[in-house]
Structure prediction request, 140 residues.
Amino acid sequence: MYEWIKAFHVVAVISWMAGMLYLPRLMVYHAEAQTGSIQSETFKIMERRLLKGIINPAMMLTWVLGLYLAWYAFGFKGGWLHAKLLLVVILSGIHGMLAKHVRAFAEDRNQKPARYFRMINEVPAVLMLAIVILVIVKPF
Prediction:
């Protein structure tokens, strides 16, 4: 059963990361759109559906399956695992921050410029890189 759980964990991670990389990109374009325009209203729908339909369920599944794997396979031991979990907590915080921005856009309260979302767009990619290295290389 371990291999099946691991496979579904990887699929959940891929889904979560795809959404975490795409949502800030949508926000870049949304920040540049005129409030109340057709484009702005379309971005609201896209952001909400991406967050609620893909990113949130994928994150929850990633956590549930990942915690099981950390317990079953490693007994929550290993410096690399602790570092990985810390980075996943940080990624989850970024997820929460993006959810807050989705709400702000939905209520036409966004105050952040497109440049802000361009910079935020890089954070999940950097975290993903570090997490993958920790999991594959297990440097400590």
Summary: The chain has a mean pLDDT of 98. The helical segments are 2-32, 38-74, 79-106, 114-120, 122-137. The CA atoms of residues 18 and 94 lie 14 Å apart. DSSP finds five helices and no strands in the chain.
